[in-house]
Design goal:
The chain is α/β, with parallel strands linked by helices and 379 residues long. It is built from 12 helices and 14 strands. The longest helix is centred in the middle third of the chain and has 15 residues. Bound molecules: S-adenosyl-L-homocysteine (SAH) and iron/sulfur cluster (SF4). S-adenosyl-L-homocysteine (SAH) binds next to β10 and β12.
């Protein structure tokens, strides 16, 4: 007799609340059970249906048949002298792909006195090819599913301890690891909803930050769909320079990008947009460029975060000297543009957000051009 293929189990980590409720209905149960199960998964860190003691036996058995709570696999864990942790994770290969190829992503936890920030990945690799970014230089492999994105936060919570003594360890999540989150719009949005849901990780909207290199159409869509903190990778105050550092600028230049930022703030009643600016020696760090940046941002709800460049093998860029960064920052502050410098954390384990160089076996190496357009247009 031919074997009947069992349908794949649904990974519950990928279901936002409404989808979860629909799933429960389809499973022949009542929608409110979704909230009960979400509490087990996200508050207690329980992945085993057998341990969800307030669910009936038949429901537990039904769930075990149809569903799972599956997270990426930890390949390595590194802990830096300052408490920063970096995990290298393996996610499944794309279903149609060569199953012997592992997909590597990275995730970083940065403890501070008043908060704990988890930096997560949204894609394996990135297609946008920014010249100073090691992820971009590796090319793009695939989008992460919503479950793989949420799974990172679940996993970090498990490793660090789910709210020991009621105290939250991870208070902030930033989409600043590998990948361009807005190029994986649907899955990132579902994940962000689960992060902020009362029955999910219950993070405040100001504590979930999405960083984008400037996919303008998706930023406009986001203004209708989701309220979270927005960070934009600006890196240059004029199109001539930004075109060379962030190639997507050739498609969506600065004026268009800033319009989308102010629109987001208006629609979502936001406080301000954080503009990231990686400090590259001799490239974008002169006082004249600081003045251009001031002209661009003064009077708008904007903050600037200066990031010392983190070198990686093969790059020709160098980070600006500390004094140069301080001068640039002070100039902005003196002229009414709030600017801070990002502290470098976990230096001994190479853990800076935004340069997480997981092992990407790239089959496609996408460069700006036809393929980039298709990646961006797909969402
Ligand atoms: N793709 C998104 C989010 C991931 S990158 C984006 O570009 O915004 C997160 C941040 O790290 C971005 O501001 C990015 O420009 C910055 N970054 C990338 N490579 C870096 C490097 N080598 N050193 C310092 N910052 C870097
Ligand atoms: Fe992609 Fe962001 Fe790196 Fe640019 S900086 S290549 S958008 S991950």
């Amino acid at each position: 007799m031919p074997e009947v293929a069992t349908p794949p189990r649904t990974n519950l980590l990928g279901l936002a609340r409404e989808e979860f409720e629909r799933f429960m209905l389809d499973a022949g149960d009542r929608p409110f059970r979704a909230r009960q199960i979400m509490k087990w998964i996200y508050k207690q860190g329980v992945a085993d249906f057998g341990a969800m003691t307030d669910l009936g036996k038949s429901l537990r058995a039904n769930l075990a048949e149809r569903a799972e709570v599956r997270v990426p696999e930890i390949v390595t864990t590194q802990v830096a002298g300052d408490g920063t942790r970096k995990w290298m994770l393996r996610v499944d290969d794309a279903p149609h792909g060569d199953r012997t190829i592992d997909q590597g992503i990275e995730m970083v936890y940065i403890p501070e006195v008043d908060r704990g920030t988890l930096c997560i990945s949204s894609q394996v690799g990135c297609a946008l090819d920014c010249t100073f970014c090691s992820t971009g230089q590796q090319g793009f492999n695939r989008n992460l599913s919503a479950a793989e994105i949420v799974g990172q936060v679940w996993l970090a919570n498990r490793e660090l301890g789910f709210e020991p003594g009621g105290e939250r360890i991870i208070t902030n999540v930033v989409f600043m690891g590998m990948g361009e989150p807005l190029a994986n719009y649907r899955h990132v949005l579902t994940a962000a909803r689960i992060l902020m849901d009362d029955f999910g990780f219950d993070l405040s909207r100001r504590r979930v930050t999405l960083s984008t290199s400037g996919l303008v159409p998706q930023m406009r869509r986001l203004a209708d769909d989701c309220n979270l903190a927005l960070a934009v990778s600006l890196h240059a105050p004029n199109d001539r320079l930004r075109d060379t550092l962030v190639p997507i600028n050739r498609k969506h230049p600065i004026a268009e990008l800033l319009d989308a930022c102010w629109h987001y703030i208006d629609e979502q009643n936001g406080r301000s947009v954080t503009f990231e600016y990686v400090m590259l020696e001799g490239i974008n760090d002169s006082p004249a460029l600081a003045v251009e940046l001031i002209d661009l941002l003064r009077g708008h709800p904007a903050k600037v975060n200066l990031i010392p460049f983190n070198p990686f093998p093969g790059t020709a860029y160098r980070s600006s000297q500390t004094e140069v960064i301080e001068r640039f920052r002070d100039l902005l502050n003196r002229h009414g543009v709030i600017a801070t410098t990002r502290k470098t954390r976990g230096r001994d384990i190479d853990a800076a957000c935004g340069q997480l160089a997981g092992r990407v076996h790239d089959r496609t190496i996408v460069r700006l051009g036809r393929k980039l357009v298709s990646v961006v247009a797909e969402v």
